[in-house]
């Protein structure tokens, strides 16, 4: 916690946090991609993660989701130590993830994509062997209408445009209602008007359903606009933490982006 | 899309309007159970109507057999995206199991049949845990290797009769096998059809489309892959278990037939892999052709098979059913204002809606 | 002592496996295709040499020089076969699903194999090469002269290919295409032709080795798949894209097989080497000599 330029407005016990990392470190060969990073995210927060290319943002995400196992440090999800859990178990425990490159199941229909995301009934084979019930189907229609994809339920998802796929991926996360959603550059590659919609959807989810969101973003206007709080990584280290205003005026952050050591 | 493709698409459109194809596919989908029942009844009625044991009954029985094998292959290869070159290993194990159990242990055929299925599933579970960790080239070759090793082992062991194999004389009637294979096929089609509408079926498709994403969504993919693999092993094993007695003879070459393995892949692809009806229709179609070649040009059927595989893959990778449903779904997409092929159009459209 | 003898036998045969595998690895590395018809090239090479001798001299028995003279014919013919295989079939599925590429080459494998059975029957054949003394003893170890010649021939072919890739213009084009086909096309390399040449070269070497195999073992229309599988084992062992790795992998595989057949039974060689492969794939998927896991 010594590197924090301003500490989060909560007590340090941290177990009320939805997500907490404690000294997470990941090395590849001689390179330390993530160096002793502490992060704490509370219910209902939208938190941004920024930093220059190669700062270790995606690696940190991968350590949290269980795609990679950190060399040192722990990851806590709702107070539970999930560091050594397999990826699918962490996801099942309430961690949702949207990838940088939009990832949906292209050869399946839009509706099947959504049904898959629903968490009801768990994940064991026997409960998956039942046909989806009508309330689940109604929920998919509702969500598709919400993100303006109504009527495309039976279309093969891969046929849709890139922007529509992004909306589908977001709708899938709404369907699964994770405790915390990790988004890797949600604004990347989509046009301004679509971005406007996405911001609105994210805000709505945050305000109405108390969704907790942790996002990596390069689009500064977007992240400053949407985030309650921002962490900054450079060379794998957490160099700043604070509100968007604080971050914009932080000398270390400016230096990091301008390439000064 | 090249212009020539679009032109031929246009010509096709006038002969075969996508709307009607769409309607046809919807009807098939909607009345799937009824169609299956009708098919089963028609199949079951042939012997009653006077089809007797002999050439035609054998050909039909073999068609059912290949349909079972192709559909089983497709559960893993088409639905789950793990195309195996070694499915015939389960077939061989099933085949040898009944041969040995009925001949050397004097078990009744039904008992031997069930035990053979059980053995094939256990083997599938064991092998699956190892090979399903591999992908792409590695998975394909590893499964091929499993097949070749299983074949080699049956050549060495005494109980399998070595390379000369086993002759089985006390066998049930041709009619029994006809109904057995038909019954197995109907059960399997029903099961696969049911699964394809459940979330278990969706998970398998998800693994095919993007396994990492499926994991990130909380699915332990190894578990589902292995379940699908064992299901394929069960039906392939049952098919083999019945085949050895049906054929009255089994040796390493017929039990672990690598060419058959390619044949059933070709059937699944030709009909449309990843669908329920595709592999079955493909099996019926290709087996008819191979049977004709076998009758009129003895000895050339495998040459033809190699050629057929190449032509299918190069010219028709989505298969008949796949091509048709893709063609039909174009309609669906355009109907609902999904014209937006580019992001710009798309964004404009979405904002206009608000 | 027995073990040493087995290892020596294994190294002698292993060089042949290695040379076949080097070609297989070349196609894998450059075109990113597993050529399941690669073993058929070995088979066709063996038959070419067999028929050249049989039709030329009326008998499949020959002197060493005559036999060696038949090898360039096998190499040349198989170059053409490989070139055409790529140009007519494989080029159509490059860049599509991995599975489709496997299926096309598997289809080609079955068709070639079955045509060979139609043409030459399924009976095994071999070429007899006469020597005054069939083998020589070196410090208590028996070395058949023909195996020694085959060993030298396999090494020569492997080295020739290595030099070809490193020193010639075409070789450099092949390496360029393997690294980045788009960039290679931009600097004026005919990518399709280069890929076809890659197929040709690797098939040519397989064909040359086939001739040696016709002498020291035997040839049969259905022998191909085993050689394809052995090549795969060797390449996985040595690491994709590593010629020295493939060489070591081949020598090791030969030794393991000879040891298994010497101490257990020749019938178990396939099962044992394949089980080793599975273990290796699960434990170290990049091969012993391949580049380390990237992250």
Structural write-up:
The complex is a heterotrimer of chains A (261), B (354) and C (295). Chain A is built from 10 helices and 10 strands. Chain A has 2 domains: 177 residues, P-loop containing nucleotide triphosphate hydrolases (Rossmann fold, 3-Layer(aba) Sandwich), CATH 3.40.50; 72 residues, no CATH class. Chain B has a single domain, classed as ABC transporter involved in vitamin B12 uptake, BtuC. In chain B, strands 1-2 form a two-stranded antiparallel ribbon. The radius of gyration of chain B is 22 Å and the shape is globular. In chain C, the strands form 2 sheets. Chain C has a two-stranded parallel ribbon. Chain C has a two-stranded antiparallel sheet with strand order 3-4. Chains in contact: A-B, B-C. At the B-C interface, α7, α13 and α15 of B face α4, α9 and α11 of C. Chain B: This is Branched-chain amino acid ABC transporter permease II. Chain B: One of its GO terms (molecular function) is branched-chain amino acid transmembrane transporter activity. Chain B: It is found in: Cell membrane.
Based on the structure, what is the oligomeric state of the protein chains? heterotrimer
Q: Which two chains share the most extensive interface?
A: A-B, 51 and 46 residues
> Which structural class best describes the helix and strand composition of chain A?
alpha/beta
The CATH architecture designation of chain B is Orthogonal Bundle
**What does the radius of gyration of chain B come to?**
22 Å
- Across the major sheet of chain B, the strand order is 1-2
- Name the helicity range of chain A: 25-40%
Which structural class is indicated by helix and strand composition of chain B?
Answer: mainly alpha
CATH topology of the largest domain in chain A: Rossmann fold
Compute the average pLDDT of chain B: 83
* SSE run of chain B: HHHHHHHEHHHHEHHHHHH
How many domain units of chain A?
Answer: 2
CATH architecture of the largest domain in chain A: 3-Layer(aba) Sandwich
Pfam families (chain B): BPD_transp_2 (PF02653)
Organism (chain B): Haloarcula vallismortis ATCC 29715
GO cellular component, one term (chain B): plasma membrane
Subcellular location (chain B): Cell membrane
């Amino acid at each position: 916690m010594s590197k924090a330029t301003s500490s989060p407005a909560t007590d340090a016990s941290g177990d009320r946090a939805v997500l907490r990392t404690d000294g997470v470190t990941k090395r590849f060969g001689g390179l330390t991609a993530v160096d002793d990073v502490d992060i704490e995210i509370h219910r209902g927060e939208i938190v941004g993660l920024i930093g220059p290319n190669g700062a270790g943002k995606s690696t940190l995400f991968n350590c949290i989701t269980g795609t990679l196992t950190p060399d040192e440090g722990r990851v806590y999800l709702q107070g539970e130590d999930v560091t050594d859990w397999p990826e699918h178990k962490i996801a099942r425990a309430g961690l949702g993830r949207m990838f940088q490159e939009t990832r949906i199941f292209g050869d399946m229909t839009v509706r099947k994509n959504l049904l898959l995301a629903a968490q009801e009934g768990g994940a064991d084979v026997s409960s998956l062997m039942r046909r989806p019930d009508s309330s689940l189907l109604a929920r998919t229609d509702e969500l598709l209408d919400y993100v303006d994809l109504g009527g495309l339920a039976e279309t093969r998802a891969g046929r849709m445009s890139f922007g529509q796929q992004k909306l589908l991926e977001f709708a899938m996360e709404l369907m699964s209602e994770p405790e915390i959603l990790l988004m890797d550059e949600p604004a990347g590659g989509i046009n301004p008007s679509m971005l406007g919609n996405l911001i609105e959807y994210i805000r709505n989810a945050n305000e109405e359903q108390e969704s907790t969101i942790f996002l990596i973003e390069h689009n500064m206007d977007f992240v400053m606009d949407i985030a309650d709080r921002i962490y900054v990584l450079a060379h794998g280290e957490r160099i700043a933490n604070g509100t968007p205003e604080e971050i914009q005026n932080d000398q270390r952050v400016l230096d990091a982006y301008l390439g000064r050591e | 899309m090249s212009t020539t493709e679009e032109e031929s698409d246009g010509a096709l459109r006038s002969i075969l309007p996508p709307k009607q194809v769409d309607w046809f596919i919807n009807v098939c989908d909607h009345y799937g159970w009824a169609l299956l029942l009708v098919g089963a009844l028609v199949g079951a009625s042939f012997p009653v109507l006077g089809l007797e044991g002999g050439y035609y009954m054998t050909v039909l029985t073999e068609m059912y057999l290949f349909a079972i094998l192709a559909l089983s292959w497709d559960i893993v290869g088409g639905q789950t995206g793990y195309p195996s070159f070694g499915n015939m290993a389960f077939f061989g194990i099933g085949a040898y199991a009944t041969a040995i159990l009925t001949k050397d242990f004097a078990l009744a055929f039904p008992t031997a049949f069930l035990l053979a299925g059980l053995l094939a599933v256990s083997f599938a579970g064991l092998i699956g845990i190892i090979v399903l960790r591999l992908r792409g080239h590695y998975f394909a070759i590893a499964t091929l290797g499993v097949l070749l090793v299983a074949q080699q082992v049956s050549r060495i062991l005494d109980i399998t009769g070595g390379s000369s194999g086993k002759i089985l004389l006390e066998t049930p009637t041709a009619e029994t096998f006809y109904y057995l294979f038909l019954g197995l096929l109907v059960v399997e089609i029903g099961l696969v059809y049911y699964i394809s509408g459940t979330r278990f079926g969706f998970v398998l498709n998800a693994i095919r489309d993007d396994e990492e994403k499926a994991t990130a969504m909380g699915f332990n993919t190894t578990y589902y892959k292995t379940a699908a693999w064992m299901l394929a092993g069960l039906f392939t094993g049952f098919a083999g278990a019945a085949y050895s007695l049906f054929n009255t003879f089994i040796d390493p070459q017929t039990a672990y037939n690598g060419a058959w393995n390619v044949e059933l892949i070709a059937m699944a692809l030709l009909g449309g892999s990843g669908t329920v009806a595709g592999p079955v229709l493909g099996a019926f179609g290709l087996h008819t052709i191979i049977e004709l070649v076998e009758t009129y040009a003895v000895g050339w059927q495998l040459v033809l098979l190699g050629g057929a595989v190449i032509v299918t893959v190069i010219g028709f990778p989505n298969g008949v059913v796949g091509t048709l449903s893709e063609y039909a779904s174009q309609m669906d997409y355009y109907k609902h204002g999904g014209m937006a092929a580019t992001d710009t159009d798309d964004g404009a459209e979405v904002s206009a809606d608000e | 002592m027995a073990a040493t003898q087995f290892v020596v036998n294994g190294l002698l045969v292993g060089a042949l496996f290695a040379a076949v595998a080097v070609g297989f690895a070349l196609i894998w590395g450059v075109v990113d295709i597993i050529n399941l018809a690669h073993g058929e090239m070995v088979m066709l090479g063996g038959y070419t040499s067999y028929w050249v001798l049989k039709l030329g001299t009326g008998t499949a028995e020959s002197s060493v020089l005559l036999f060696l003279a038949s090898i360039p014919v096998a190499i040349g013919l198989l170059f053409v076969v490989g070139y055409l295989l790529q140009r007519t079939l494989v080029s159509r599925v490059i860049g599509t699903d991995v599975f489709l590429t496997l299926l096309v080459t598997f289809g080609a494998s079955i068709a070639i194999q079955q045509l060979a059975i139609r043409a030459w029957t399924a009976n095994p054949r071999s070429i007899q090469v006469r020597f005054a003394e069939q083998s020589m003893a070196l410090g208590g170890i028996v070395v058949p002269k023909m195996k020694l010649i085959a060993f030298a021939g396999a090494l020569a072919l492997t080295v020739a290919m290595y030099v070809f890739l490193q020193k010639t213009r075409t070789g450099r084009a092949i390496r360029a295409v393997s690294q980045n086909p788009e960039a290679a096309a931009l600097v004026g390399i005919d990518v399709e032709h280069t890929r076809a040449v890659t197929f040709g070269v690797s098939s040519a070497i397989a064909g040359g080795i086939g001739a040696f195999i016709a002498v020291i073992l035997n040839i049969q229309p259905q022998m191909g798949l085993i050689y394809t599988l052995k090549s795969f084992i060797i390449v996985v062992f040595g690491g994709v894209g590593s010629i020295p790795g493939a060489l070591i992998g081949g020598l090791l595989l030969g030794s393991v097989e000879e040891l298994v057949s010497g101490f257990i039974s020749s019938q178990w060689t396939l099962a044992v080497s394949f089980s080793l492969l599975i273990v290796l794939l699960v434990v170290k998927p990049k091969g012993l000599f391949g580049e380390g896991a990237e992250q």
